[in-house]
Amino acid sequence: MRWLRTQIGRHRRRAGMPHLVFDDDGWERLPPKQMAQSLIQLVWAREKVLKANVNPTFTKYVGSAFVKNRLTSMTTGSVPMLNQGLSLIVRARAGAIWWAFKLALTRKIHARYRTACPCCGASEPENLDHVMLRCAKWNDLRVIMLEGWMTDSLTRCLDGVENPTDTIKTILLLGGEHNGRSIRRWPFHWRLEPNAGENPPPGAPECGCLRVAAYLATVIPARAAIIRALRTPVGAAGRADVTNSSESQSSDE
Predict the structure, then answer these.
(1) By C-alpha distance, which of 232, 209, 180 is closest to 82?
(2) 181 beta partners
(3) Which of 64, 119, 189, 215 could form an S-S bond across to 137 if both were Cys, CB 3.0 to 4.6 Å?
């Protein structure tokens, strides 16, 4: 009853059915049968509205055909070093990594990082496309782990596509599709057995999935350390400066 009392008005307005109840408490005075019918209509109307407003991340996930290259323990086995990177690929696909611009929007870090990367200082927001393709902080790692394979794979996959966006490139690097085309040899071509080690068996083709997993497993923890430093309370830093200044003055005296 408490939930209904606090939520009925909001859900009634969101469902676009203000006629069901004349005021936020009026539903409590309805006959039981009429109340039940009204609440059923309200719930179904709300579900219809929510279904129409599909989450853009879900739409992107389905449209990118990530479901065709699922990353599960059944296909990858269990290797500690790989598991972290593969988990990060799944999180990146689902939009579950909080990049700096989102942290800035929620006031976790300074507002200037809505439009600036905290890692390389570029005047563009840090997001998945930036980290995968452009962030200067990770240039050396990108060259070692991705550069040659990434350039060749994207060139072949995007042949004939005019001005492909960075988002399209990132989708392909994460194992997705664009216009029915995907990067060859991206998914696993063998099943890793427990305790098999971090390397593929002799003669197995190298897959893009492992390259991207290794890159993210290296970059994301290093990036997290940078973000943690930015989340230090400004007041604490200010107090530290005052303390250091006072100590220096005392020593001078």
Answers:
(1) 209
(2) 178
(3) 119
Is 157's pLDDT higher than 70? Answer: yes
The model's confidence at residue 58, banded by pLDDT at 50, 70 and 90, is confident
Q: pLDDT at position 16, please?
A: 54
Q: Residue 82: is it exposed, middle or buried by C-beta count within 10 angstroms (0-12/13-18/19+)?
A: buried
Contacts of 54 (CB under 8 A, 6+ apart): none
Q: How far is CA 246 from the centre of its chain?
A: 44
Phi then psi for 57, rounded to 5 degrees?
-65, -40
Cα–Cα dist 98/95, whole Å: 8
Query: Is the pTM value of this prediction over 0.90?
Result: no
Which tokens is 46 given?
A: 């709300």
Q: Which of 1-10, 15-24, 118-127, 140-149 has the lowest mean pLDDT?
A: 15-24
The tally of CA atoms less than 13 A away on the side-chain side of residue 244 is 6
User: Rounded to whole angstroms, how far apart are CA atoms 245 and 239?
Assistant: 10
Q: Where are the domains of the chain?
A: 2-52, 57-234
Per the CB < 8 A criterion, the answer to whether 210 and 82 are in contact is: yes
Burial 31-42 (b: 16+ CB within 10 A, else e): eeeebeebbeeb
